[in-house]
Design brief:
heterodimer, A: mainly beta, 6 helices, 26 strands, disordered N terminus, B: alpha+beta, eight-stranded antiparallel barrel, two-stranded antiparallel ribbon, about 20% helix, about 30% strand, globular, disordered C terminus
């Protein structure tokens, strides 16, 4: 493998596993994990949305997986179509629309957008028999006391977490035998009873450990903050305990980069970049939370701000003609008609100055949008500077 | 006094002396078995880095630049607002939360019949004037080599070198919260530095010589770390931490200098390191001069000078121009015009406008250990790939 010159042995093995995952559509070990948001459904903050970011709703009147939204209803409530060749999975199934068309359904209820929602983030249609579709709804499941579910972007999905919100991992191996000390069993109380998909695994020392779908659960000692999943790749027998996964475009990966943690990249290892504006904040933007973008700002910038000269070195991360938005990924259409992936609102690019996997030479390059032109004003809808940043998952 | 005076406010020093003693004791026990005369290296992290101001009573014969109220009043009146109305606008703006009330101030630029943002279109507003510093003394270096022949240059008050080029001092010299004479710190640079240094990757400097006790050649490397400074229980920067060197070649600099009677001097055509959006996005020095002196307790201090592009200097304040005018008493339009006026290097071939400005910066350094992140300085840290793209089911 070409990357082997740059990666350690363990890392190569992990990357190879990643490639297999792409081709087999598996996300976690041998088990297929459903998408949190399928193609055609995106995630906007705490809510599900359609490909254009419009909030999704279900209707109390829809039962048995069938839409009861007639022509009159359809004037205000638009069915969310299932993209061609896409099948359902997990919470999301393909329902029959009022006119027989394929319509996404969430837990059996067809989903719609509301005509009075005019921009991303609006949710004016809740109430009167219509329910706003939130991510939290998708996480509803029977859980042992102390466990929860939260977004773990490092693992591109929603994972089981412990009482401290630390990521949990499932173990596929002989749990009777000792594992490395960096893995800590998720112990169950002596009086605990199995619940839902959670059972109790009797350990050699007589203690009991929670297991999810039959696989014992562990935490990883190097995860020290919420949302971290540094145990990925440490031992192939351990997998993040995902309950749903996020869509990622083909040939897109998350890399663990020294000093910067996890970053988004192409399968070839080229770092992905977004173009962000200045944000006033006390303290450095180098901290990971500070460096995250604001989706509304990303949407505002869109594909603007990179002229022909800029495009010589910054290449839009293009989406295939048949690609559809899903999860945190949307698609922007450039002025030349080509399609460009956007992640959490920000159009993505690669940089020609990055020569080998892991390079991030484009990070923190600035363009100051100060104009000395006294005949034409600078674009008031753009911030005072545009800065290239690596993209955190 | 050769360079900046010693300070004790920042950085814990006792610990260094103890560890140094232990290290020497350890070396003695080991018997100094190595027969070859290995070079000595000392590494430091930048504990303080701020513009070299040397405020004297004669710097601002017409007084300092006005405060925010006066800036706003001038701005409104010179752009056509009657004085009574100007006062009313300012009063209303102060009463309101948010920036909406300040719109007549922020959008005081005019292009054609259209009001435009003054901070991104600074030349759309008549020059309000900006008081720049005059006087005999300034810290810095004779960057252009003209020396005593340069009538417009300063004299270094410590070395009495003539022909000191420090136009940045002219800019900052009549701003109240930049006025300071060492060992006092200028207020605003101190404030911003204190904010960023807890999260901004530290800057590192390593000096290598055959024998620091003798005059001779030294090699100086300046890098950026992957980690930031930590503080001790007193809030001082903690000495003797280990810093990983960021492999990003943009912030890797090596140049030669000399040590003479304990004082290190060096010159280099370029010195570049990435900064932070909140502070300075980057430092892109040309025609660099540096001087540095070790202290007995292991710390060091010094000064670096060179020509910097002035647009990032404007950007540091203009990125949030209203804030700069409100809290720093810095008229942004006046600042922009002043920067254009006093810039003294790198003329634009088309317009003749100088694009760079002579500057000098004081640095205080704490002793640290440095290790290459991976592969050594100048090489990007290799990393690991983790996951995973997923395609639609």
């Amino acid at each position: 493998m070409k990357l082997s010159r740059y990666l350690g042995g363990t890392a190569v093995a992990v990357l190879a596993a990643g490639c297999l995952l792409q081709s087999s559509a598996f996300a976690n070990g041998k088990e297929e994990i459903a998408f949190a948001a399928p193609p055609g459904v995106t995630i906007e903050g705490p809510r599900f949305a359609d490909g254009a970011g419009m909030t999704l709703y279900t209707s109390d009147k829809d039962v048995d997986g069938k839409s009861n939204c007639d022509a009159e209803c359809a004037k205000m409530w638009k069915a969310v179509a299932v993209p061609a060749k896409i099948k359902g999975g997990g919470n999301w199934t393909v329902a029959k629309g009022f006119n027989g068309e394929a319509q996404w359904a969430f837990r059996g209820k067809p989903v719609y957008t509301f005509a009075n929602d005019k921009s991303v983030g609006e949710a004016k249609g809740g109430g009167s028999g219509w329910t706003i579709l939130t991510i939290a709804t998708a996480d509803e499941m029977m859980l042992p006391v102390g466990l929860g579910i939260r977004e773990v972007n490092d693992a591109a999905g929603r994972s089981l977490v412990n009482h401290r919100n630390m990521t949990l991992y499932t173990f596929e191996g002989n749990a009777k035998k000792p594992v490395a000390a960096e893995w800590t069993p998720v112990y169950a109380a002596q009086i605990a009873n199995p619940v839902g998909d959670f059972t109790l695994f009797k350990r050699e020392d007589g203690t009991e450990q929670w297991a999810f779908k039959g696989k014992p659960l562990y935490t990883f000692e190097n995860d020290v903050a919420m949302g971290e999943a540094k145990g990925m790749g440490a031992d192939p027998r351990f997998q993040v305990a995902l309950v749903s996964r996020y869509f990622m475009p083909p040939n897109t990966i998350v890399r663990n980069n020294l000093g910067f943690g996890t970053v988004m990249a192409t399968a070839e290892g080229k770092s992905l970049y977004m173009r962000d504006g200045y944000r006033y904040q006390i303290g450095s933007h180098y901290t990971r939370p500070a460096a995250r973008g604001v989706p509304a700002q990303g949407r505002n910038i869109g594909t603007r701000g990179c002229d022909a000269k800029c495009l010589e070195t910054w290449h839009p991360y293009t989406a295939a003609a048949d690609a559809v938005p899903a999860g945190h990924w949307t698609i922007l259409t450039r002025t030349d008609g080509t399609r460009q992936w956007a992640y959490q609102g920000y159009a993505l690019y690669t940089y020609t100055g990055d020569k080998k996997p892991g390079d991030m030479i484009g990070n923190d390059q600035y363009t100051y949008l100060v104009s000395e032109d006294t005949a034409k004003a600078s674009d008031p809808t753009l911030p005072v500077s545009l800065n290239w940043h690596i993209v955190f998952p | 006094m050769v360079i900046a005076p010693k300070k004790t406010r920042h950085g814990s020093k006792g610990a260094y002396a103890r560890v140094l003693t232990m290290a020497l004791a350890g070396a003695a026990l080991a018997g100094f078995t190595a027969q070859t005369a290995a070079a000595e290296s000392r590494s430091f992290a930048f504990n303080m880095f701020y513009p070299a101001t040397y405020t004297q009573p004669d710097n601002c014969p017409e007084g300092v630049n006005p405060t925010s109220h006066e800036i706003f009043r001038n701005a409104l009146i010179t752009t056509g607002t009657p004085p009574e109305k100007a006062e009313h606008i300012i009063e209303e703006a102060v009463k309101q939360n948010g920036n909406a009330g300040y719109k007549p101030i922020t959008e005081r630029g005019k292009i054609g019949e259209k009001q435009v943002n003054a901070y991104t279109n600074p030349l759309s507003v008549p020059d309000p004037g900006f008081k720049t510093a005059v006087g005999k003394f300034a810290l810095g270096f004779n960057l252009d080599g003209r020396g005593a022949d340069d009538a417009s240059a300063f004299e270094n008050p410590w070395t009495h070198e003539k022909g000191v080029d420090n136009q940045l001092f002219r800019i900052y010299g009549c701003l109240a919260n930049y006025q300071a004479t060492p060992p006092a710190y200028p207020n605003y640079p101190l404030e911003t530095w204190e904010m960023v240094r807890d999260t901004m990757p530290a800057w590192l400097i390593t000096v290598t010589a055959d024998d620091f006790s003798k005059d001779g050649e030294v090699t100086i490397s300046v890098d950026r770390a992957l980690n930031h400074l930590l503080r001790d229980a007193k809030g001082h920067a903690r000495s003797l931490g280990t810093f990983r060197i960021d492999g990003d070649p943009r912030s890797h600099n090596v140049f030669k200098g000399k040590i003479e009677k304990g004082v290190i001097t060096a010159a280099a055509p370029k010195l570049y390191f990435l900064g932070d959006q909140f502070f300075f996005p980057d430092f892109d020095f040309t025609q660099v001069k540096m001087t540095m002196e070790f202290e007995e307790d292991g710390h060091a201090h010094g000064m670096v000078g060179g020509y910097l592009p002035w647009l990032p200097i404007y950007y540091q304040h203009g990125q949030n121009g209203l804030n700069a005018e409100t809290f720093r008493g810095m008229d942004m339009v006046g600042l922009y015009r002043a920067l254009m006026r006093v810039a003294d290097a790198d003329p634009d071939p088309a317009t003749g406008q100088n694009r760079r400005m002579s500057t000098a910066w004081l640095m205080e350094l704490i002793p640290v250990f440095t290790v290459p992140a991976d592969g050594g300085p100048g090489k990007v840290a290799s990393d690991t790939a983790t996951i995973q793209s997923a395609r639609a089911p």
